[in-house]
User: What shape does this take?
Amino acid sequence: MGRIYFIIETQGISLDKCMQMISTSEESGDLKDLEDFIRSNPHPQELKRGLVIQMLSEQIPISKIMKILGV
Assistant: This one.
């Protein structure tokens, strides 16, 4: 559990921004801005992990998460 808290603490602002980007990307169907933002993060894998945790906690289906994040 400690790792999850580390991800959320260090990536909190980025997580919030990504969640906003996801909701706007779903409307437009364009995920390029989200992908670029994740790649520009100093720890992109940690950010993706945090996003998965955040999205699962919001009960977003795994298939949708995989499609959005390309995992």
